[in-house]
Design brief:
InterPro entries: FTHF_cligase-like_sf, LUD_dom, NagB/RpiA_transferase-like. This protein is an alpha/beta fold and 213 residues long. It is built from six helices and twelve strands. The strands form three sheets. A six-stranded parallel sheet has the order 1-12-7-4-2-3, with helices on both faces. It has a four-stranded mixed sheet with strand order 8-5-6-9. Strands 10-11 form a two-stranded antiparallel ribbon.
Length: 213
């Protein structure tokens, strides 16, 4: 007997006395839990997102659509970024204010090649105000998971208020469970037993979030 058969056998024995339920999963599982904490206006929800992003040491910027290319250009210049990773579907105008070399997101790119890129610019799928979390699901302008983890500098554009929700349950309502998602709460960081914080261990050392109004 293989390990797989042994595990599946234990699962079948554990479920032997469970009454069959033919209802759809959405109906079989009660979801009467609290969906969000309190009521907020759209403006207050965006403010809460900005506060929690900053609390996680993300750098928060605000601008309108007309100012976005010049802002991204200044942020890349401030990092002296000579190259920027570009995911498929990113709006071309977003990078109109920079002379940095565009590096397309290719399936064949190795981690070492991505590590040589200075910055990456992406959009997002949704942003969660209560947790200060940005979620990428690989949609247009977001690219594959590793492009937001390998380069040391990540600029993420969040459209407000349309892409901002108050809570995790509200975010899950918008996400496709069949798509891989990356949940980002501030720049990558970890702490050792002495609680010394080290950033950039598992992802970008610097996260800049642009709230595009």
């Amino acid at each position: 007997m293989s390990d797989r058969e042994r595990v599946l056998g234990r699962v079948r024995r554990a479920l032997a006395d469970v009454t069959p339920d033919d209802r759809p999963y959405e109906a079989a599982v009660e979801r009467d839990y609290l969906r969000e904490h309190g009521e907020r206006t759209a403006e207050r929800t965006v403010e809460l997102l900005a506060e929690n992003l900053a609390d996680y040491r993300a750098i928060v910027h605000r601008c309108g659509r007309a100012e976005l290319p010049s802002l991204i250009g200044r942020l890349l210049a401030g990092r002296e970024a000579g190259s920027v990773l570009v995911p498929p579907g990113l709006e071309p105008g977003w990078l109109a204010g920079t002379d940095a070399v565009r590096v397309p997101d290719r399936a064949g790119s190795t981690p070492h090649e991505l590590d040589r890129v200075d910055s990456v610019v992406t959009g997002c799928a949704v942003a969660i105000a209560e947790t200060g979390t940005i979620v990428l699901d690989g949609g247009p302008g977001q690219g594959r998971r590793r492009i937001s983890l390998v380069p040391d500098h990540h600029i993420c554009v969040v459209r407000v208020p349309g892409q901002v929700v108050s809570s995790v349950p509200r975010a899950l309502e918008r996400l496709d469970p069949a798509r891989p998602s990356t949940w980002i709460s501030g720049p990558s960081a970890t702490s050792d037993i002495e609680l010394d914080r080290v950033e950039g261990v598992h992802g970008p050392r610097t996260l800049e979030v642009i709230l595009l109004g």
